[in-house]
Amino acid sequence: MRKMNHCELEEVTHHINDKISTLKRLLELRAVAKDPDKRGMLLKIEQEVTCINDLLDRFERYVVQQRDLLKHLKALEDFFHEDELDAHHMKDNVPPHMPKRGQHSNPHGGEQVAVQSRQPDAPSAPQVTEPPRKAQRNQIKEMEIITVPEFDNIPPYMKGRVTYDQLNTTVESINKAVAAKYKILHQSVKTLNNASRSLQQRFKDQETKETKGQFFIVEQDIKEFTQLKVDKRFVSMLNMLRHCQRFREVRGRRQTMAGALRELIKSPLLVAAIFISGIGGTFQYGFNISVLNSPSFFIKELVNSTCQQRYGRSLEPWQLSLIWSFIVSVYSIGGLAGTLYAGRVAGVYGRKTTLLMNNILAVCGGVLMLLSKTAGSFEMIMVARVLYGVNAGVGLTVHTMYILECAPKRLRGMVGVSVASFASMGKFTGQLLGISEVFGAEDRWIWLLSFSGAAGLLQLLTLPFLPESPRYLLLEKADKHSCETALLKLWGREKDPRPEVEEMLAEHAALKGVRIHSLMNLLMDQSVRWQLLTLIVTFVTVQLCGINAVTAGIAKQNLRYAALGTGLCEVSTSIFCGLIIEHTGKRVLLFRGYLFMAATLLLLTLTLYLQDFVSWMPYCSMVLIFMYIFFFSTGPAAVTAPLPGEIFTQSYKPPAFMVAYVLNWTGLFLVGMLFPLIVEHLDYFCFLIFFIFCFFSGVFVWFHVPETKNKTVLEISEDFKRMHQKRRNSLQSKLGSIHINDIQITTSTKF
């Protein structure tokens, strides 16, 4: 057993002494508790000790709370430190323009408001949203700034050298002009000074039916309230903002028929250009289509007598019919050949020079026709018909290009209708001069066939007094001075050509470095796919709608006078269409024309069927034929011919015109060759084939062709993209919803 040392004994002694002291105090306290005088003091001490214990408990809880708060403050300090770092980073890297709350970065999202505000996209599914706040009466909408994704999606040819900051600076300047303008408009007249009152009155005068209830500004407002220069750079930035759907352009009040005529009359040289180019252009095309109807007997007689003199025998009826069919059809072959090279030659040598050289073919053809009877050679008639065909093919293409490029944008529809009007006038002139009282007699028919040479000679002598196409000079020759000089000559000194020159320059900038495209480029380029489809549908239908065969329902004894009547009807309605096209719009005329033609063909089929049963039914057929010609001349005939020059940019025009008029000549040839066979097998039910073409073309125009009235080529191209982009997005949305439903159904069947 271990012995304890001295220290351990002392600790035990102290411990025992403490316990004895504690017991003594407890005994003393017990004695005190029995003392009534000191019991009250003990109770008071007990209460104070209890209070102290409570205070200690509360203090402990407070310490715990403070420790928790300290932890939260530490975490908050770390959070604020991170925010401080983010703020410093944003300060160093934030872009100069930030989108406002609720703006979507999708460049194609949203729906444009009349001039410059854009509403957000509608939700794809029902959502719980707060009730919309009531808009303030004088709240001014601002154009949203362009986001970086939107700027990146702008085509490079449209952006040019414009930067992101420059574009948004323009947006801010336009917003400044809008705010300044409507601040004046919203004020009471009594609070304005004289200058502000004048401005307010001017703003109210600018209000039109199209701009009512919308925020809009005009060029004068931009000059009044901003430091912007309205130049070609500003126009290009407007095109970019329009591409991003920040605003839409309203081109003033709707032009009336009388207003368009007054504006046209103020440009006498433009009127002269319409007639001079038309005489040697589409007039030749229409004239040579109808001119062979009257002298057919004399030409067959010449063919027969020539073979009798050469070979000592007359031709069999089938041989004579074969030669006659070749004389008629070779015109289409020549026209097709002329169309194939017309666009390329016009692009290299110019529109005016091409038309001048083209007239040499017409003059040579007229000389051959004039000498054919004297020489006793029907081959000269064949060669002349080929030359006439080449002349008509070139004239049909280049005349359309030239006259559309000479016309101001506000008159482009009216001037474009003159292309169809001169074709109708050519047909009617050929029918009128072919009657026996004029040139339809045996001793005068060669003068009738040589009339095209005289028309070509007339254009050859007068065309040098006209200027070259302004668009050709600027966009393909880059000669701005010559372009402005040509515009001043054509439009007169009163009209300022600078706005349209700026639009041409914008197109020139868009096409800078782009060569004239080939036919293969046109067929393969996806960006002009819908324009090409529009071209194919309209030009195929204009020949296969039945206009060249609709007189088949007229009795042969009345055909001569009916042809004159239909020709006169076509000319008059074509001229009437030229007066209303700027008011109505080309898309409406095209759609309405095709559908009414389809309805008329159905009724015509019915009346032809009932002719053998009802005596007065042939008169109904005649009325329907005139109605059909009216709808054709006021719609497809007037709008289709100039269509390639309106929906294609300058680099695509030559191949576009080539495709258009190749389809035109091919359709003319096929109708001439196949329609007699179709009539032989289907009789009057052949018009149902034409009904199908008219009906489906009308539906196609309604769903796939935008309005082209008073728009530039770039605006029309953007409308094509926007129209079919919306349909593609809608289709994708529908397919997506179907796919989701399929997944939901599949999942439910598993359970």
How many discrete structural domains?
Answer: 4
Mean pLDDT: 78
What is the number of helical segments per DSSP (H or I, 4+ residues)?
A: 31
Low-confidence stretches: 102-135, 731-751
CATH superfamily of the largest domain: MFS general substrate transporter like domains
Helix-strand category: mainly alpha
Helix content: over 70%
CATH class assignment of the largest domain: Mainly Alpha
The CATH architecture of the largest domain can be given as Up-down Bundle
Numbering strands along the chain, what is their spatial order in the largest sheet?
1-2
% residues in beta strands: under 5%
Strands, count? 2
* CATH-defined fold name of the largest domain: Growth Hormone, Chain: A
- Rg result: 44 Å
Record keyword descriptors for this entry.
disordered C terminus; Growth Hormone, Chain: A; elongated; Arc Repressor Mutant, subunit A; mainly alpha; 751 residues; 4 domains; two-stranded antiparallel ribbon
Verbal overview:
The chain contains 31 helices and two strands. With 751 residues, it is mostly helical. The chain folds into four domains: 148-244, Ska1 microtubule binding domain-like (Arc Repressor Mutant, subunit A), CATH 1.10.10; 266-466, Growth Hormone, Chain: A (Up-down Bundle), CATH 1.20.1250; 467-513; 520-739, MFS general substrate transporter like domains (Growth Hormone, Chain: A, Up-down Bundle), CATH 1.20.1250. The chain has a two-stranded antiparallel sheet with strand order 1-2. The model is unreliable at 102-135 and 731-751 (pLDDT under 50).
